[in-house]
């Protein structure tokens, strides 16, 4: 078992997302050296009219379909960060992984056709750093689930308080 | 080029021709973007002898800022300008946030200039290198949200960012504007009406090219520095949680005389807490903004249950609530959403309706004039009817759509009154630009608004700089004012609203500051202007990181000065003179009639003194004509020549 810090996951709480796209610009700037959301590994899917913004990014699945469908077995897991990464020396650019990903989280470079994916920025995701509302968090799963439990319990306790008042 | 996208689009709507050209580097470095570009284009290219704003010769120009789309905090501004605004017969540019501006940069463009008039309705589609005019006949008459939906379906891609006018722009209503991203409004000056006159429904853009920056690491560092400074400011928390809605009751009650309704309004049902508890659903933000002052909201009960939208600033809520005596918050938000969907500026429309109601109450307007409508305060059905009549130019709205001055002329005629008597009740400066409130008690605001051309858009006024907090050198430096100015401000009357003294000094500084931020495309709410800490030095740091250009705050201040000089040049060529830098005469020497400022007087002599002080600071003569050496020092020799040919340069 790796140290706990290696087990952090990128957790998205879309209800907190303001849709500012700072994560997209930060990602593209760090990883491609240019401000260009089209090259960002994280994308905010917007329903502008409904006020819904959902950041979509690689979930670093335990059982990743992108890796399963790769004919060249080019995908592997970076042991240091826990991220699934591509060995570009082996990748033939068939984009099977793009088709297989149920989240649409793999990005095809609009001009070169290269498949790009989230590498968790060597264990310190830039998108998380620049998310003001903490809609994006890089966090160990046990803490994540505890915080979710706590949020839910707090809503429950509010409801219970109301019942007593009635 | 770093920072800029590098291309300009020119569209001749008459011929349906699109011409693309590379952005001239010297032009970019001298005028930066947005505000700077738009003014320069109008100064150079507009035929000032053409006085009809609906003429095909009028120019509609659109530009994001120099830093829009880069990794700079709050860098998302988009400017929409017209050379000749039907609202007052001068130049106007309105700014908005949202995502359209950055997307335009990502597609590769820094400026779009429209001229001519299309024979049929069209919209401009931009997808990276693909730029085309497309038929908009099927969209004509549609509201903004529906238009955007239809176009995204038509193009088969929901990612397009949109900028469209609604029915009020098509019907050339005074106060119409284009709406970006469904809810963001570069309002002011009836830019939408000019677009409508050109049969230009709007434009959509999708960009995948991105913006190159000179030094990515420096961009991150500059962002971090500004973020760390701003997030600890008390103002940050207020805006992040409440947006501008915290100003509802404060701004509303500032309406001293001419809007009795707003002043005496019961704010217990329409206020920021009611908004946050009953309506708000979550914070929303423009591109690259960590301040997220916007809210998505939904009406949950009452007749308008289910109505939803984004935005709804205090500036929109006040005209649809307090100013027209409407205390049903659900209906206020319904109107806010409806008006922006119709592509209409809520402040212009709200002031118009309030004025008409006022005259009706005073008996100057009767049912005979209004087509049988009883203009009662706070009648929700009536307000809804009036909004439709104005935006579709039906019934009484045919006249209202011409704006408040056209209405005043009619009211004077119908009542056999001198026009001055009637226009007493309209809050405008001498350029006929609407003023948000009766500012007689607040000398700084009164001074600033008398001179300004941006009515409802307060983005260019000086007074927020001194509106609150201790006024001393330390405080100003804390807010990013360079020491040289902070020193002067610290020992002055800039923070005292009871006197005109030193207001020219602070207006000179802050107008330049605003011109810089608006040209770079940085939201003023991140800057000194809003009591936040991004000053000119920080902007210079961001320019260096994004474009690689070495600039100092002095360079930027001089650039702001350049913008103000060219704006003055444009206004002079449009025929505005010193007398147009005043409030109407009835503002002066007449004490405030009632309320907490009862008895306060605005002295015309003191005003004039301060106005001439401002002219002196700007390097103009006593009549407001720029001196040649003022322009030459700023590298505006060509502009000085053009002004001199028309006799618009200071003599001697």
Task: Describe the structure in brief.
The complex is a heterodimer of chains A (166) and B (652). Chain A has helices spanning 22-32, 65-69, 96-100, 126-129, 141-165, and strands at residues 9-12, 34-35, 43-47, 52-56, 75-77, 84-86, 107-108, 115-116, 136-139.
Q: Write down the CATH topology of chain A.
A: Alpha-Beta Plaits
Our count of helices of chain A gives 5
Counting DSSP E segments of at least 2 residues, the number of strands of chain B comes to 15
| Helix/sheet category of chain A | alpha+beta
| Beta-strand share of residues of chain A | 15-25%
Quote the distance from N terminus to C terminus of chain B. 42 Å
Number of strands of chain A: 9
Shape of chain A: globular
Explain what this protein looks like in three dimensions.
The complex is a heterodimer of chains A (166) and B (652). Chain A has helices spanning 22-32, 65-69, 96-100, 126-129, 141-165, and strands at 9-12, 34-35, 43-47, 52-56, 75-77, 84-86, 107-108, 115-116, 136-139. Chain A is an alpha+beta fold and 166 residues long. Chain A has one domain: Alpha-Beta Plaits (2-Layer Sandwich). Chain A has a two-stranded antiparallel ribbon with strand order 1-9. Chain A has a two-stranded antiparallel sheet with strand order 3-4. Chain A is globular, with a radius of gyration of 18 Å. Chain B has 652 residues and is α+β, with helices and mostly antiparallel strands. Chain B has 28 helices and 15 strands. A six-stranded mixed sheet of chain B has the order 2-1-6-3-4-5, sandwiched between helices. A five-stranded mixed sheet of chain B has the order 8-7-11-9-10, with helices on both faces. A three-stranded antiparallel sheet of chain B has the order 13-14-15. In chain B, a hairpin with a 4-residue loop joins strand 1 (7-12) and strand 2 (17-22). The A-B interface holds A 15-16, 18-22, 25-26, 28-30, 32-39, 46, 48-51, 53, 110-111, 130, 132-133 and B 69-71, 99, 102, 106, 145, 148-149, 158, 181-183, 207-213, 216, 219-220, 223, 231, 281-290, 292, 294, 296, 308, 310.
